[in-house]
Batch of 2 targets.
Target 1
Amino acid sequence: MERTFMMVKPDGVQRGLIGRIISRLEDKGFKLIAGKFMQISEAQAKRHYAEHEGKAFFDELVGFITSGPVFAMVWEGDDIVTLSRTLMGKTKVTEALPGTIRGDFAAHTPFNLIHGSDSPESAAREIANFFEEKELLTYNKTIADWI
Ligand code: RTP
Ligand code: MG
């Protein structure tokens, strides 16, 4: 079972989309194992987006992600890193297809509502940046074995 880190960004919170975004992830059958509504610190934001350090939009990106509360989550599922990014849609809102979260709700890059890890390695690093091990819950969620 794979894990991923996902986050409703400040624009998603401001627009009242936390519930609808979580519903889409639940509808897909993913399993929520952690979640918290929080304000990200600047240091945490810089660690989270370390791969983009030095790029022209880095300061703007850190400013955006720390501009208000986010809803941070950890989800589990088979191939969840790839599947969740398919559900999210493309980074640029002009390329995000209808039916995806960004395609249906986002209209201005870089305000694309949701973050999802881009590899299992990124997921492990990002989860550790936002959650303590004890916050990741273990429980049974019944999913029919023919899915
Ligand atoms: P994310 O990390 O937030 O899930 O998004 P992503 O993988 O689809 O995109 P990534 O390339 O990692 O970029 C991270 C976030 O930076 C903002 N961005 N701004 N101004 C720009 O050219 C630009 N490019 C990217 C977006 O908010 C993007 O989600
Ligand atoms: Mg990314």
Note: The CA atoms of residues 9 and 70 lie 5 Å apart.
Target 2
Amino acid sequence: MTPAQMKDAILHHLVYTLGKDAAHAQTYDWRMALSFAVRDKIVDRWFEATRRTYAGQHKRVYYLSMEFLIGRLLKDAIINMRLEEAAIDALQELKVDYQAILEDEPDAALGNGGLGRLAACFMESMSTIGCPAMGYGIRYENGLFRQRFENGRQVEEPEDWLSQRHAWEFERPEVSIDIGFGGHVQEIGKRANWYPSEMLIAMGHDTPIIGWRGRWGNTLRLWEARPMHGFDLQRFNRGDYAAAAEPEALARTLSRVLYPDDTTEQGKELRLKQEFFFTSASLRDILRRFESEYDDLRLLPKKAAIQMNDTHPAIAGPELVRLLVDERGIDFEEAVGIARNTLSYTNHTLLPEALERWDEGLMGRLLPRHLQLIFRINELHMKDVGTRKVTAVDDGHVKMGELSFIMAHRVNGVSALHTELMKSTVFKDLHELHPNRIVNETNGVTPRRWLLSCNPRLSTLITDAIGDDWVDDLEQLEKLEPHIDDAAFLESYAAAKRQNKNDLANWIAEKLEVGIDPEAIFDVQIKRIHEYKRQHLNLLETIAHWLEIRDNPNQGWVPRVKIFGGKAAPGYVFAKEIVRLTNDVAKVLNSDPLTSRYLKVVYPPNYNVSLAEKLIPASDLSEQISTAGKEASGTGNMKFALNGALTIGTLDGANVEIREHVKPENFFLFGMTADEVMERRKIGGHSGQAIAADPRLARAIEAIRAGRFSPDEPGRYHGIVDNLVHHDYFLVCSDFTDYWRAQREADTAFAAPKDWARMAAFNTARSGWFSSDRTIRGYMADVWHAEAAPTVEDA
Ligand code: 26M
């Protein structure tokens, strides 16, 4: 597409799709016009991919996920379609600011954190590779809440990304599937009829996900809940205006909000309804498509692979069995076999409080037929393996992890360590019964968004050095290694980072009115706020460092900017106190004339995908400091390493594999191992011992306790202090001393800029393995048994 053609396309959509003339168009109008112009180009390729999937009778992959944390779509689409030059030139002629248009797009924040973002990376990689696939999820009207700070405290506001027209989706009223809840079951022989007492409709909305160079495009289908019988006209005519709209309002609540919790299982009825709603709609859509092409249901596992992203869609097991037995007359045991060979399950966490369990009573009321089938599935499994020891139903609860495990032919962990821990802890018994079922697929990230798009300076430098094959073959980055010994290359590498840091410093000055030194170490911890992720370990080190600088302000300290980003679940009290403490510490430190040129703390509110794209390219040091054994994988850790930040981290999740790839000398390791953590916990009084042994730690805790960061309310953080001193389940105190040591090593290393640049460049060169393209190829080979289709010609 030439710039002139692009300009015509933009103007066409401005006038005929938006009904605006150029003289009166606002940023929003231009953004929409550009989006539609780009979308037109995508649609042809998307159709072609769909045609080829049907024509080639390829096996399809279905990715069922409660969350897709996509972020913005426009730039991704432009970059993958190779339209950036045309768009920039066209807009320049139209005198419209390209960056302002990109920034105007709201994030599609349909996810909480790692799990949802992984699903988004996977969608992009499946399209890049040409894996025929479809993502299924919920079209939440309100995505993850917006975070604001009020006197340092987190305040949540609703997020309304759909208040403006969404340029990327196609409404599919013809794909409307009715979903039932409640009611009763009538058994007739081996089958049953379920008569639900409540019905509503799932309507599909399709978003095309285009791969690199437009070679392939898959669909993300998100379900919206709609009432079966909309507005009650008779009630309205009787004058009962509010009641007339009632069924409509009730049905719509189902797809209204994303639950804002990324670890704790809440056991709420509406949540279970959401899970069944999107799972059932997806399965019936899948079966409908399958039956339009094939007439033997036993072929299902050969033609479809259904991935359950965590246990949120775990009802897929019993629902698929129900659809096969009750609605298609297949024998129960055969149905279980078909379902199991089609389904697979990814586990994303071992934290006991995050494992979903549903009360039998609730399940039986909402999904009476499914509860019966769960009992039968459970019995059949016990009979097959000859034990009554392992069960999916226990103590009046359905355990969704166990249910998923026994209904899946493959179960995977998301990093090597996490997979081994699955085998030895939560799924120990099941693993012994099914030793080939658990496999590892270490997570990855898409290099299109997380390098090419978010870090154009580094991308250009890489392409100048080794060509652009790295974009869809990321392990080519190893070709950078010989360049690392070249002083000119290293200088350019460091210059790209410095410019990124300058941009970020300017943004922070403008948005947060905090001045930061671009020459300082940019030390960044961005992720959901959680005790196991240990933002408070980072804070304690910050405070200890501050106190030490105050002791001796004229010693040549290495300047540092500590950047935090992340949301706390609204009901998670401890996490919210960490948020407030972070803001309080920032306030005190940033206004301390003795220390502020050496140490600042910034905490931009409302951390999201778009903010990550700004922060990561400008980072020097990546904080990956969870208690070993608790972070299943992490994916932010990979994005940082790829963009040339050094990691300070524990041997947890994928950190272990990152360290092996980038080499131990280019990684600041500290802390106990997962085994040591389990041992240490058994010792009573471990935190007291650690505090007594390290005066720096004792002083930092005392500063908080005494109210140095909350002088108007000295007791404000006694909860945090008591927890650290008396419980410290996550071993913050026990790991502090070694963390401090590693931080000082980072200071020393940063003071030698050439060595630092070499280590950073080595991180980039050795991060190629962490592409989600590699991860998807692993799933295709080991889990889905699916092959890529022949792709379309390059855009
Ligand atoms: C549960 C109940 C109610 C509401 C929400 C939830 C819920 C939502 C998301 C529970 C867990 C959720 O996700 C867990 C998660 O994000 N796990 C992360 O997955 C990433 C991708 O595999 C890993 O990199 C992270 O280490 C892991 O914490």
Note: Residues 112-115, 118, 259, 261-263, 265-266, 271, 348-349, 354, 414, 443, 631-635, 653 surround 26M (CB under 6 Å).
